[in-house]
Amino acid sequence: MILLSLNVWGDERKVFEKLISYIKLMGGVGGVDVFCFQEVFSTISGNAPAWSNDGDARYKLFTDFCNILPNHRGYFAPHHDRFDYDGETPFFTSFGLATFVRKEIHVTAVGDVFVFGNRNEVGSEHPFSRSRAVQYVTVVDENGKPCTICNFHGLWNGKNKYDSEERLNQTKNVHAFLNEIPHAKILCGDFNMMPGIESLRILEKGMRNLIVESNVISTRSDLYEKRDIEPYADYILVSRGVEVKSFHVLWIEVSDHLPLEMEFSVL
Fold first, then answer.
1. CB crowding 192-214: b at 16 or more within 10 Å, else e
2. How many CB atoms sit inside 10 A of residue 237's CB?
3. Beta-strand relationship, 2-7 and 234-238
4. Which residues lie below 8 Å from residue 117, measured CB to CB, with a gap of 6+?
5. Contact yes or no for 130/166 (Cβ under 8 A)
6. 190 has which bridge partners?
7. Helices (DSSP H) in the chain: which residue ranges?
8. Count of Cβ atoms closer than 10 Å to residue 3 Cβ
9. How big, in percent rounded to 5, are the helix, strand and coil portions of the chain?
10. pLDDT tens per residue, range 216-237
């Protein structure tokens, strides 16, 4: 199977056409089997506009992805409602994680578990310290072997990507959830963490960190204004039972994050 993880940046208007074209291409025949997206907006509100006022949030992005990935099933896991990057919205919209799985792949479980707060909660460190969840799908390969793929967008406290009390508590909860999975597992996404911090070391217990193993120098594109200061955010971690056939950080500017692509099989 081929997995691609990408923080889509709420789909800023300036990269919208390029992102949509790229995802459509990658989802074609012989392409990506499982997409894990972070920072996805979704709305079914009839009075919701397509974009936020400043164009940094595409409210119908989940629907856009459903339309360009007809060979995949889409699953949406919201963290917050009536929220965009500027604050509360006057219409109903949701913000969170989305995973798309090719329809030929057998899925036995789908869900999400909150690892920081509950839906729509705000933490104490900053107004952006908002509730976080892990979205998961369990897929079964052609030999009947299961693997749970976990899509994660880690806490952002409006400050930096180093340890804090709330970030440490969040990652302890993620680690506890991973320990409940009895078979092969993958954790991917935008962790909002720098390498080497304690929060990341907690997640690495029993897992291989492909970013560190591959000596990746950055997971952020040049669209990220602090790339020279905080060049990392995104990771793929794999457990025993996952054979990594290839792993790449793809240099394409469809977001302020770079896509992570992995081909793998289940042992």
1. bbbeebebbebbbeebebbbeee
2. 25
3. unpaired
4. 123, 130, 131, 132
5. no
6. 153, 234
7. 16-26, 61-68, 165-179, 198-204, 210-213
8. 25
9. 20, 40, 45
10. 999 999 999 999 999 999 999 9
| Token representation of residue 83 | 């929220």
The two tokens of residue 148 are 């749970």
Q: Please name the residue that has the structure tokens 């952002």.
A: 156
Residue 186 tokens read as 């993958």
Can you tell me the distance from the alpha carbon of 229 to that of 239, in angstroms, rounded to the nearest whole number? 30
Q: Is the pLDDT of residue 87 over 90?
A: no
Q: Say if residue 163 is exposed, middle or buried (CB neighbours under 10 Å; 0-12, 13-18, 19+).
A: middle
Strand partners, 264: 244
Owner of token pair 């492909």: 210
Average pLDDT over residues 58-78: 97
Cα 61 from Cα 47, distance rounded (Å): 16
CA distance 168 to 155: 10
